[in-house]
TrEMBL record:
GO molecular function annotations of the record: aminoacyl-tRNA deacylase activity; aminoacyl-tRNA ligase activity
Protein name: YbaK/prolyl-tRNA synthetase associated region
Keywords annotated in UniProt: Aminoacyl-tRNA synthetase, Ligase
CDD domains per the UniProt record, alphabetical: PA2301
A Pfam match: tRNA_edit
InterPro entries: YbaK/aa-tRNA-synt-asso_dom_sf, YbaK/aa-tRNA-synth-assoc-dom
Superkingdom classification of source: Bacteria
Species, as recorded: Streptomyces scopuliridis RB72
Residue span, YbaK/aminoacyl-tRNA synthetase-associated domain: 48-165
Length: 184
């Protein structure tokens, strides 16, 4: 199979490589009910040592920055209560945590979740967190520009490997709320 974007030699439909995914991501792919067939979720094997966005783009080509997205876990706090959420923005932008996220969560304060919290609550590796397979009870805040991107490169749940998926799927994931200006 040829990857829909990038110079990846080893591209396979995600349902054919569930063993490469973390349990929550594999479960989400196995039970996929999105608007497109699960076979259009493409897994590509990549080096875990270069999983971070800037290094990844330097290795595979800077053109991927416009087609890559980051998924980060945030914590909104208000009155002693904490709410975890995930945010998906294109890699060339950053999440507006103190503006859009804080207001959307109705929080007094919002910040990136601690690494231990993000890893423990998602069951995924830090640096590979993906919106596919997140806890269904979480808000999933998605920048509208991600949906407008034909194919999006995103984490696979591990630092090794990435998923390439149609951008439009993010709006249909559990808990998804599409927002303008989430990525600035």
């Amino acid at each position: 199979m040829r990857a829909p974007l990038g110079p990846f030699d080893n591209a396979r439909p995600a349902p054919d490589c569930l063993e490469e995914l973390t349990p929550p991501v594999a479960d989400a792919v196995r039970g996929w009910q999105g608007g497109i067939p699960a076979e259009q979720l493409v897994y590509v094997d990549t080096d875990p040592a270069i999983a971070d966005t800037a290094v990844f783009a330097e290795h595979y080509g800077p053109g991927l920055l416009g087609q890559s997205a980051n998924c980060v876990v945030v914590a909104g706090k208000r009155g002693g209560e904490s709410t975890l959420a995930a945010c998906v923005v294109l890699s060339r932008t950053r999440v507006d945590v103190n503006g859009v996220v804080r207001r959307q969560l109705g929080a007094r304060k919002a910040s990136f979740a601690a690494m231990d919290t993000a890893v423990g609550e998602t069951g995924m590796e830090y640096g590979g967190i993906t919106p596919i397979g997140l806890p269904a009870s979480w808000p999933l805040l998605v920048d509208s520009a991600v949906l407008d991107t034909e194919w999006v490169l995103i984490g696979s749940g591990r630092r090794r490997g990435k998923l390439i998926v149609p951008g439009k799927i993010f709006g249909g994931l559990p808990g998804a709320v599409v927002l303008e200006g989430l990525g600035v």
